[in-house]
Automatic annotation (TrEMBL):
CC annotations in GO: membrane
Protein name: Bicarbonate transporter-like transmembrane domain-containing protein
Originating organism: Xenopus tropicalis
Membrane topology: Multi-pass membrane protein
Lineage: Eukaryota, Metazoa, Chordata, Craniata, Vertebrata
Domain (Bicarbonate transporter-like transmembrane): residue spans on this chain: 1-139
A GO biological process held by the record: monoatomic anion transport
Location relative to the cell: Membrane
């Protein structure tokens, strides 16, 4: 029972807090208004794809070169996080039988991160705690 609760701790916590929010009627809590369909937030301002060279005025060339340093730091951060997660999950004590499935999982993370970046969505990362919890739930 304890392991099951540990595996599903986040969904259980979300469900409990939603029930608490609905049960307390004398306090107002701000809710997120979600549109009925999958669409751009402000279609009059921008579309799905944003021009990387600037939509209102040209993107300065000096800023392209200046953005190399932050991009390199983000690359190092994601690379190190992925490698540390891979080392933790690939330990012999986890007894991974299907190693190719783990590599396919990493490939999907990379592909989804690239697609997310193109559409301005949040990046996916190989978050260590979530990955270890996922591996524990699978074994």
């Amino acid at each position: 029972v304890r392991r099951t609760i540990g595996d599903f701790g986040v969904p259980i916590a979300i469900l409990i807090m939603v029930l608490v929010d609905f049960s307390i009627t004398d306090t107002y809590t701000q809710k997120l208004s979600v549109p009925s369909g999958f669409k751009v937030t402000s279609p009059e301002k921008r579309g799905w794809v944003i021009n990387p060279l600037g939509s209102e005025e040209p993107f300065p060339v000096w800023m392209m070169f200046a953005s190399v340093l932050p991009a390199l730091l983000v690359y190092i951060l994601i690379f190190m996080e992925t490698q540390i997660t891979t080392l933790i999950i690939s330990k012999k004590e986890r007894m991974l039988v299907k190693g190719s499935g783990f590599h396919l999982d990493l490939l999907l993370i990379v592909a989804m991160g690239g697609i997310s970046a193109l559409f301005g969505l949040p990046w996916m990362a190989a978050t260590t705690v979530r990955s270890v919890t996922h591996a524990n739930a699978l074994t």
